[in-house]
Amino acid sequence: MGFRYGGTAWDGQKWSASMAIRALGEEIDGVTPRPKGTDGTVASKGHDSASPTSDHTPKPAVGTGIVRAIDFSVTTEQGYAIAERIRQLADPRCKYLIHNRRMFSSYPVDGIEPFVWRYYGGSNEHISHVHVSVHDDADDDGSPWGIVAQEQPVAGIMTVSSWAEAAFDKAVEADIVSETHREQAQDPVTLERMLVFLDRAGVLDVRNLNDKYDGPGSQSVTGTFVGTIT
Ligand SMILES: [Zn+2]
User: Fold this and answer.
1) Which candidate in 29, 68, 92, 111 could, as Cys together with 55 as Cys, close a disulfide (CB 3.0–4.6 Å)?
2) Do 85 and 194 reside in the same domain of the chain?
3) How many angstroms does the Cα of residue 20 sit away from the middle of ligand 1?
């Protein structure tokens, strides 16, 4: 069964999904194979009692309510790839996204710019699914999101490698590290140490860097990572 885009909620209220949610769900359906266990749009009774103000709850509460959120199940790799793709698209319909203890919003929060990853401390870590909420002015906008329209769709995991490259450029430029140090920082452990070092040296502003890697010898670092090169 695919996503539900309308019908009757658990309490009998009529609801329909925002067209932006429908367009997103239809694109996510094109990602195969994909786990489906936590797929959902409209809130269940349990969801409503746990999170009564959720965008999964049809609003307004009287008449036909609109659901402006979707949860789609993902493998870890799919989650990183799709969530990052949605972040990069910065679609004006996107209100916020949550995945694997990270989130971004379409508005600044605590000095963190729109569409920049930040830590998510909610009780549900969103490891097995991605949550997307959309703005209420996008109810009639069912245009494509373009998530899987790129040439290399849904592959790989979030990596800080390219970001670190830019940081190292800055550091070499500022004479904080030598080219040799830079070349040595190719394995994940050294990379992480170097990032912390650069943070202390004031070249980077590193927040939420997890020391969790996707395997020995890999150059990609997974986890929540928010940083700016100063
Ligand atoms: Zn959700």
Assistant:
1) 68
2) no
3) 15
Check whether residue 42 and residue 105 sit in a common domain.
yes
- Predicted pLDDT at 166: 64
What is the pLDDT at residue 204? 62
Of 58 and 223, the structure prediction assigns the larger pLDDT to: 58
Ligand 1 being an ion, which residues bring their Cβ within 5 A of it? Answer: 71, 131
pLDDT of 85 reads 86
Q: Is position 150 within any domain? A: no
* Phi and psi angles of residue 77, each rounded to the nearest 5 degrees, phi first: -65, -45
> What's phi and psi for 222, nearest 5 deg?
-100, 160
Same domain flag for 93 and 187: no
71: CA distance to ligand 1 center in Å?
A: 5
Tell me whether residue 23 is in a domain.
yes
Q: Is the pLDDT of residue 45 over 70?
A: yes
In a domain, 153, yes or no: no
Closest alpha carbon to 4 in 12, 100, 13, 18: 18
Is residue 67 within 8 Å of residue 137, measured between CB atoms?
no
